[in-house]
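Quick one, T. Sequence first:
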Amino acid sequence: MTPTPDSTRTQQAAAASDPQGIDGPALRRWIARTQGVDPQDVGFSVLSVGRSNLTFVVTLAGAPRWVLRRPPLGHQGGSAHDVQREGRIMAALGPTDVPVPTILEIVDDPDVLEVPFVFQDHCPGFPIHAPEDLALIPASGSVRDSMLSMVRALAAVHAVDIDAVGLGDLRRPGGFVERQLRRWLGQFEAITTRDLPVIGQVQAQLSRSIPPETSTGLVHGDVKPNNMLFDRDTGEVRAIVDWELSSIGDVVTDLGYLLSMMFVDDSLTGIWTPSVEDGSPTAEEITQTYASLTGRDTSDVPYYAAFAVWKLACIREGVYTRLKQGRMGDLDVDPEQAGASVEALAASALDILRSGRI
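Structure tokens:
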């Protein structure tokens, strides 16, 4: 079919407004071919950007229809930002009780996009990452109900038989936490430009007291309310998203991570989550709910929370170093404030280890 002048102009205008990271003409042709739609009806808008994988809403006649997830701009390959792995994990979870978006295609074709990408159904819902998002929880629900729904979703992740769903090959030799401690200390040492002995001190204490790995399974790795899509009618979790950091390890690490994000001062973590004052359940109630759903021993959760906070300190040091070197683009963050948070996070991890409380 020969394009008409009007259709050509329409496609040129659409391509001019496509967000960075999207090859509009090539993707429209691919979507038209695979989904049986008119390419002129396809549009793209940014859902999330940054230094993690990029997410775009793909619209059909102006309405959200699909989601496309790709590595960050300038990605050179390697294990980080592996969207194919992420897509494979989500696709494997599709038939299980874990709420995830439906994966339609995992594509690695430079004629469509210069990097691999995951194409999935759009899942209606809202994340919670700021106080105003609490107003989206319907009157029939509550902050407490939504947060406990998140715990139920996490328990479903940890109930997955990784061998039965074809993810058993993601296991790595050696202890999960031991590998993580080596990895993050190595990354810290490779990027830091200053002397911060507290990072090594916390790492040494964590290394001396690693709990036995008793519940090996799928670990999401970044469980928090802004990686959940909550239903606008019920307030329940409709989907868990952002599986970029998922791995196989002791699943209770996820619970420790969640509690650290929710109950360590957000001025340190930089991540806002609902508080008890907002109606969220206490750390004890979240832990007890998880334990009753899974039957797992949660006595080591404070250790895993301390580990999560220490890991965040290592990550924050990378941010500080790149800010000082002017390698963070237009990110509006005070380098000295970011640097001070590294020591404060490490001190918080030490406090959790010593007190056994989050």
